[in-house]
């Protein structure tokens, strides 16, 4: 696929098998690097959580990933977060919240939010009369968290960072300074290493940011679509780590659900006959060759449900009072949604796994008329432990 927009997991043979062979090893390299460098911080953090009963203790891999998330987001956004006025901050937070629960006024909210994000989150001018020091985690970490929450794109990652902020406040300034320095060093290492190892999958990101992105201006998705190359790589590694962390529990779940993006539908919105339910849209089999229809038929045979989600913010809506371990979900999404989606699912007591779209192309964000997207079905069937998955894959390609 020569004209992909930002990333592409497929090789010259037009499949992403090589990517899925490579990403486990690179993710393990990242985990081992963080384990060696940040083991003491993670030990202290886990002890703090246990002592003060902050939350149910997670796995070391989850906290290792959070170290990386904090470092990468700090490197990308900390300078933008220094000078966010109080009134725009409160307004943007309110708009992000309203957008999730008020779909009637969504277009109006998106218009206001896009304009305000462009002015205050992306284009805000630093007051020349104020002398700013170089941002540092021990002084400015909370400002970054506030900025991330205002964007509406990092709600659950910012939520995790708030717990780390409590931990930092519990320790003295020298401890936080040293921890912050280490977190940034790990993020610097990851950026260089990931460009070398994963850069072949994200060759068009810089080109997109230099050309098409300048026309996004005051669009509501101006922050989401303006993400840097390292954020693509962070989500690739993050998805692999989260899949690993939740794998055993996912396999034990009684109910399994696949959430598909609307960009996988063969027909556009105005001709696709999908039917709305409280869990998402269900396929009405309007096209025999549509991948959604095919997966729906496979689901009936192998006991999993399939729902179409028009937008990532709709995912898992209408799900309350779930006991952790009962429902496993496979989220299929653009790479930039993976970590946030996985954390959101876990927050709702769903047990997440994910499969990355091989390339992006939805009408909402990336392409004027929309491109039908696709996934690695071998990876999906491996996650679901469907027997004879290779045979099904071959039949899908015929």
Automatic annotation (TrEMBL):
Superkingdom of origin: Bacteria
Cross-referenced InterPro entries: DUF116
The protein, known as: DUF116 domain-containing protein
Organism: Clostridium kluyveri (strain ATCC 8527 / DSM 555 / NBRC 12016 / NCIMB 10680 / K1)
